[in-house]
């Protein structure tokens, strides 16, 4: 459940910016039918920063309902307040989610000791499996391998989503952590190398709009069919990059609408929709990859 292609799911909205349950249900069915191993709901790509606390809970519950137990749901529960993370996880404790993804506290810029105490306190207040999430480019703080090692000793901290793009981190973490600890890429464009170095999977933005390709890519690596995985990676590498041509999830929501997976690419301020100029760039890539 914590390996292979896991999608960092977008949150579909209608033209007024309200949650579009119909599109959410369609997206989840798309991932069930295309081999995605699990769904991360309410992560960075899910625009959790601009949703209300009630909406955050509601969307997770909608996802559980729409999944019909056919695909595991991982909930994004990370805040820059330890108590807020504990509070939301307590509501989800017996909901049916298989685990939580907790990002390092953004803006606060805690020390390594602060990070350790933050994640430890969260883990000690739940039985749910906890996945650490390190993305310094977004949060302004970096969870170092030595701190990851200390946290791995806590029974229900079971892995990390590493989105630094620094491939040297994999061996550093593996050499420190001796127990089974899931190493999950959070960076599509380096995911091929990440998994070859021993990574277990990827929490992917690209999987939102190329679910079958990402699923096959991960399966081929697991089966040691490296040339087949490399071919898919070569096909998708331009798309991996272009989905960050503007801040995530602006481009991927536009592509999802272009492919008919959602009804609108509406976002809430301060996020805005993809510029016409960049639409043309991505459109050409979609045609090249025969996605349209």
Question: What features would you describe in this structure?
Answer:
It is a single chain. The protein is α/β, with parallel strands linked by helices and 292 residues long. It has one domain (4-223): Aldolase class I (TIM Barrel), CATH 3.20.20.70. The chain contains 12 helices and 8 strands. It has helices spanning 21-33, 53-67, 82-92, 112-124, 136-139, 145-152, 168-176, 191-196, 211-222, 226-242, 250-258, 276-288; strands spanning 4-8, 38-41, 73-76, 99-103, 130-134, 157-162, 182-185, 201-204. Strand 1, helix 1 (21-33) and strand 2 form a beta-alpha-beta unit. 45% of the residues are buried. The model has no long low-confidence stretch (mean pLDDT 96).
Estimated structural class = alpha/beta
Strand content: 5-15%
What is the arithmetic mean of pLDDT? 96
Strand order of the largest sheet: 1-2-3-4-5-6-7-8
Poorly predicted runs of 5 or more residues: none
Task: Tell me the number of strands.
Answer: 8
Helix content: 40-55%
CATH architecture: Alpha-Beta Barrel
Which value, in Å, is the CA radius of gyration? Answer: 18 Å
The name CATH uses for the topology is TIM Barrel
């Amino acid at each position: 459940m914590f390996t292979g292609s896991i999608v960092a799911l977008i949150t579909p909205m209608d033209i007024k910016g309200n949650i579009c349950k119909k599109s959410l249900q369609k997206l989840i069915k798309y991932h069930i039918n295309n081999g995605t191993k699990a769904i991360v709901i309410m992560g960075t790509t899910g625009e959790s920063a601009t949703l209300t606390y009630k909406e955050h809970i509601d969307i997770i519950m909608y996802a559980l309902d729409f999944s019909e137990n056919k695909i595991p749901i991982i909930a994004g529960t990370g805040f820059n307040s330890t108590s807020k993370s504990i509070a939301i996880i307590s509501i989800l404790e017996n909901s049916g989610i298989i685990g939580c993804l907790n990002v390092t506290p953004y803006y606060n810029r805690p020390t390594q000791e602060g990070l350790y105490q933050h994640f430890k306190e969260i883990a000690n207040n739940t039985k749910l499996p906890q996945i650490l999430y390190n993305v310094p480019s977004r949060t302004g703080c970096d969870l170092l391998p030595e701190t990851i090692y200390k946290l791995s000793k806590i029974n229900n901290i079971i892995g990390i989503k590493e989105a630094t793009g620094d491939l040297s981190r994999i061996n550093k973490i593996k050499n420190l952590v001796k127990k089974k600890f899931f190493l999950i890429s959070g960076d599509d464009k380096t995911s091929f190398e990440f998994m070859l170095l021993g990574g277990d999977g990827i929490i992917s933005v690209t999987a939102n709009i190329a679910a079958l390709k990402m699923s096959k890519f991960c399966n081929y690596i697991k089966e040691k069919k490296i040339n087949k995985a490399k071919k898919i990676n070569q096909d998708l590498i331009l798309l991996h990059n272009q989905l960050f041509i503007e801040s995530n999830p602006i481009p991927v929501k536009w592509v999802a609408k272009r492919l008919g997976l959602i009804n609108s690419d509406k976002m809430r301020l301060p996020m805005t929709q993809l510029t016409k100029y960049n639409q043309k760039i991505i459109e050409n890539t979609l045609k090249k990859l025969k996605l349209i």
